[in-house]
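Predict the 3D structure for this chain.
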Amino acid sequence: MRPVFQSVLASAFLAMASVANAGPFEDGQAAYDRHDYATALQVWQALADHGDAKAQNKLGNLFAAGQGVPKDYAEALKWYRLAADQSYANAEANLAAAYETGRGVSQDYAEAAKWCRKAADQGFAAAQVHLAAMYHQGLGVPQNDAEAVKWVRLAADQGIGIAQAELGSMYANGQGVPQDYAEASKWMRLAADKGFAPAQGALGFFFAQGQGVPQDYAEALRWLHKAADQGYAVAQFNLGVMYSNGKGVPKDDVHAYMWLSLAAAKSVLNASEYRDDMLREMNSIQVAEAQRLAHEWRPEGTWQPSRHS
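Done. Predicted structure below.
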């Protein structure tokens, strides 16, 4: 099982909005929430010009997203830096993302790691997750899975689903910690209960294999369905295999072909081969029905797959 670390780009940090206090800042937030970006810009600009770090960070967000102003990464960077220089964690994280992606500044992984650590040291969970990813990948810091585990655990202890799933993955793979499937399944379940599709898919795999939990095909099917229904391609592949083999569910070539087709469309390894092998056991009516189901399928839930899913 591969870790679920994904690059946390600027958009992810922008989503980690701070809770506003009553007053002018909140007026700007209310305007932003109703998509009145011009008013939000006016309110936050006035505050930012007087050194309000939260408003400076929000102003950077507007320029980065092109909301109420032309998109301008250099201008966004200017405001992020002003807020980051006041040790505002959200802005430090946004500045780290700018250095990592090279938006508004020359790409510099070491500088990205420096600012990410500043935010992580303040307990900012998104930065802790991303700093863990940087240690895991060796971006801007020496590759060190033990450090990755340290930082991702801090975020997992705050209840962050992606961090809990990553910690579970590292226990499953024995990366930075001794391999421990029981501990892996514990963290995966915490993330799966939050609706995080990769964790649901991993938990389904654990139940199918009896890794860290008693083997239980019915539970495997239940968790794989939760992940597959959200569009998680690896779970769609594993679900297709279960329907094809008749494990935990009556053998169903039509639904097996459907799920394998969905996984193949996202280039999951071996999905197209498994699907095409089924043609030897299916008639044209079954194939047409499976193709119809695949064509009409739509994801459920709030999890958004990335290009790595």
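Confidence is low (pLDDT under 50) at residues 2-21.
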